[in-house]
């Protein structure tokens, strides 16, 4: 399909060209490229928007959706900046007579205007490919050297057991099965922790967390999706070997992302003070 498009474009160019222009083409000098301000501005906007999305997106779910958008914007912006932005910059430098009419600047700027017209796409290709290589290498090394830390953070114990239902009978049966399995291998449990958690997904809006599956308006708020996990104060003190005390309307908060700065938390029609 690409070769067909190139062939059709070549036919179009030959059809529009005049025979006299073709015969005199070798003697005609190269035209100076025009300064395309709109394309240059569009390139800077695309480049800035792409990097802004990459830097400001912290939600993992939103990052998966916006990653390719940011990549495409950066690639488009890079090509536009090299092809149009470089010409605009060089011509702006040429208009500055105090800077342009100097021995070391006069020839270099004049030559760069024509060289950028010929080599802008090639330089943009090198820039994009180099960036991709650096991103792949840095991501690979980060995952490779940080894998042990990731595993230790998510799974601080060798084994983790979760009952299918949180009834007393299911928990009792699970404990019995664990003890029987350890006895079969002549092993004793060490460094064990037992606690109960309440986990659910919700929509975070400031200090308010909304849990309403029936409301379809919340399905599009991907950037605001959060996961809350609750543990009792007794379990918290047991896990961290602490002696924290809370009132009935107080909670402790630990955030895996940015620091939670609000003085209160609203969820399930309750308002808790953050200690």
From TrEMBL:
Keywords from UniProt, A to Z, are: Membrane, Transmembrane, Transmembrane helix
Annotated membrane-spanning segments are 37-55, 61-90, 122-147
Q: Write out the coiled-coil annotation as residue ranges.
A: none
PANTHER family given in the database record: ABC TRANSPORTER PERMEASE (PTHR46795:SF3), ABC TRANSPORTER PERMEASE-RELATED-RELATED (PTHR46795)
Under which name does UniProt file this protein?
ABC transporter permease
Which species does the entry assign this protein to? human gut metagenome
Its lineage reads: unclassified sequences, metagenomes, organismal metagenomes
């Amino acid at each position: 399909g690409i070769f067909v498009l190139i062939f059709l474009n070549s036919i179009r160019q030959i059809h529009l060209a005049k025979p006299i222009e073709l015969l005199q083409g070798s003697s005609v000098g190269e035209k100076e490229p025009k300064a395309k301000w709109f394309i240059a501005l569009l390139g800077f906007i695309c480049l800035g928007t792409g990097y802004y999305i990459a830097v400001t997106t912290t939600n993992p779910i939103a990052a998966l959706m916006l990653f390719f958008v940011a990549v495409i914007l950066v690639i488009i912006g890079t090509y536009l900046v090299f092809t149009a932005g470089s010409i605009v910059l060089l011509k702006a430098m040429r208009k500055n007579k105090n800077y342009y009419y100097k021995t070391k600047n006069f020839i270099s700027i004049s030559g760069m205007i024509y060289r950028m017209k010929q080599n802008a796409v090639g330089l943009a290709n090198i820039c994009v490919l180099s960036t991709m290589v650096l991103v792949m290498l840095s991501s690979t090394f980060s995952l490779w050297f940080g894998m042990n830390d990731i595993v230790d953070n998510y799974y601080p114990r060798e084994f983790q057991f979760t009952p299918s239902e949180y009834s007393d009978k299911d928990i009792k049966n699970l404990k019995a099965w664990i003890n029987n399995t350890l006895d079969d291998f002549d092993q004793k449990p060490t460094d064990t922790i037992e606690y109960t958690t309440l986990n659910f997904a919700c929509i975070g809006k400031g200090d308010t967390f909304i849990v309403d599956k029936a409301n379809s308006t919340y399905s599009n708020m991907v950037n605001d999706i959060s996961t809350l996990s609750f543990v009792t104060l007794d379990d918290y003190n047991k896990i961290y070997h602490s002696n924290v005390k809370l009132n009935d309307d107080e909670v402790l908060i630990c955030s895996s992302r940015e620091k939670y700065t609000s003085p209160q938390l609203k969820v399930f029609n309750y308002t808790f003070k953050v200690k």
